[in-house]
Structures are given as C-alpha cells and as structure tokens.
C-alpha cells in the first residue's frame, strides 16, 4: 500500500511545522522519517495517520485521496513511544482489543492473538498485566496490538525512544525481521541516525518543516544533498572549507599532493578498536581523523606529530556554509 504526500503545509499559530512537503512512500517498504526534534517528522506522521489535518496539500493511500478521511477509515496501525497500554487488561486482552471492538468472532480473535503473541515472542506472557513486562516487552505488545487489525500501513512514532540503548538495539533488529515477515508498509519516526541507517529501506530527512533529502541509507551517507544531511547522517569534520567523514581522511609523513594540507596532532584518544586524532591545521578548528589501531601505530600518531592530511580519493565532501563546526566525537 503506497502513500503519496503532496504539497502538505501545516502551521500551528505562527509556527510552520511543514512547508510544502511532498514524499512518496513505496508499498511494502520500511521508511524512516529522520530529523532533529521539532523538525516536523512527527507532524507529518500524524497527518498521514489522520490524527492531524493539513492546512493544504493531499495524502493519498494506495491512490485514494485520504486527506479528509478519519483515522478509522485509513486502516493504519499506530504505535506511540509510550505504549498507551490498557493497564487493567492482560497482554492477551490488549492485543485482542481492536478485534473485539470490531466484533470479530471469538474463535477468530483467539487465533489471531495467539499468532501475534508468537510472532512477537510474548506467548508465555499472555496473562500478565503490562506493568509486569519490561519496556521492550511492552513495546512488542504495542506492535502486536497495532498489527492485530491487519492494517495496510503501520506508523511508529519514536517507538524505541523511551528504552535504554541495549534494548533499543535489540528491538530495532527485531523490527527489521518482523517487517520482513509481515510485509506491511511501515513508516517510523526517529532522531537516531544509526537506527534509521540500520533498519530502513528508505530515509526521509526532515528539518525545519522541509524535506532535505530522500534516499537509501547508502545514498544519504555517500551522496548527501547538502551540509545539513552530511552533518546529520554520520560523523563529520571540516577540512579546508569542506565537510568530510573523519574515516575518509588519510595521514602522511610526506606531502602526497592531491590537495593535502599540513597539520600538527593536538590530541589522540583510543575508543575501543578506533583511534581518534585531532590535527591543528592553520587557524581552523581541529580536524578529526579516525584510524584503526594498526594504522595509528604504523604512523606513530602522538601529540605533536607533524603530518599531512587529505580526503581519500572519491570520498564524499560537501562545502560548508560556515567556517565553524563543533568537533565531532570530542
């Protein structure tokens, strides 16, 4: 079930939340709306769901104009960050709720709920209350409840935002596997670049109410449309007026040509398998270079070392609009 958002505009008072946004969500795909807090991504998701109405523009679901349809007629499943569980109902009854209010036959409800609880690995917790589950388990219950009514579109608003880092990692792996099994068109909102890059087929970068770029994770990382996308999707540093990935920089003892510039190592830090070195180049902010331990040892990287630095040939670079950039990874 494909989704087309065409020229959507939304204001809250004087604040422009969405400014002429157009996005196509392919059928059966897993699309991330990625961007900073307040950028408009959740507003866009809520307009697709029918929980907010756009001031202008259209939302088409599978070619049908759904712009003014209420949420219940859009056949979408919605999962919020904070679960929105019915605290007095068991896990089984929470998942069954949408089917029961649609007056589905009891036998059908039982079969569907048991199927979903198996799918999300909660079958042994069917009789527990939500408060008796961990955060990750409650979020899986919320996903099962959203899937119970067989939605054509699944919408997730920061689904893992309230969970700790380890549980988030586990659940995003699980979400990718779940999506591949159920094959429902899925859109999820996140401000976590790694989450979007790891899980999504397509990423829509949203900032200040506008779409900055739409593409696959590889396209955004390797061919960013502008300096905002370059900065937001992955680590960056600045060298000679351009943004570049720290791991796309090479260091030499002799001038290799190709636009290399001369610098002095200011600081070195080892972070796990990675070595980070900051070079002072002219009067610019220090340039961050990331290397493997083997590379750093071979070059003899230490504070005070004099080295030449340049981007790897073919590495993506984007001219910066500003000569100041916070040091990444400090």
Proper CATH architecture of the largest domain: 3-Layer(aba) Sandwich
Q: Per the principal axes of the C-alpha atoms, what is the gross shape?
A: elongated
Under CATH, the topology of the largest domain can be stated as Rossmann fold
Secondary-structure element string: EEEHEEEHHHEHEHEEHHEEEEEEHEE
Tell me the name of the CATH class of the largest domain. Alpha Beta
Number of strands: 18
Average residue pLDDT: 89
Distance between the termini: 44 Å
Structurally, the number of domains stands at 2
Write out the strand line-up for the largest beta sheet, numbering strands in chain order: 6-7-8-3-9-10
Report the helical percentage. 25-40%
Q: What value does the Rg take, in angstroms?
A: 24 Å
Tell me the name of the CATH homologous superfamily of the largest domain.
P-loop containing nucleotide triphosphate hydrolases
> Which stretches are poorly predicted, pLDDT < 50 over at least 5 residues?
322-330
Give a nutshell description of this structure.
This protein has 330 residues and is of the alpha+beta class. It is 28% helix and 32% strand.
General description of the model:
With 330 residues, the chain is an alpha+beta fold. It has 2 domains: 3-227, P-loop containing nucleotide triphosphate hydrolases (Rossmann fold); 237-319, Beta Barrel (OB fold (Dihydrolipoamide Acetyltransferase, E2P)). 28% of the residues lie in helices and 32% in strands. The chain contains 9 helices and 18 strands. The chain has helices spanning 41-49, 91-101, 106-119, 135-148, 165-182, 193-199, 217-222, 227-232, 293-299; strands spanning 3-12, 15-25, 30-34, 56-61, 64-65, 76-79, 153-157, 185-190, 202-207, 210-215, 237-239, 242-244, 249-252, 261-271, 274-280, 287-292, 306-311, 317-319. The chain has a 6-stranded mixed sheet with strand order 6-7-8-3-9-10, sandwiched between helices. Helix 2 crosses helix 3, helix 2 packs parallel to helix 4 (135-148) and helix 3 crosses helix 4. It is elongated, with a radius of gyration of 24 Å. It starts with a strand and ends in an 11-residue tail after the last strand. Mean pLDDT is 89; it is low at 322-330.
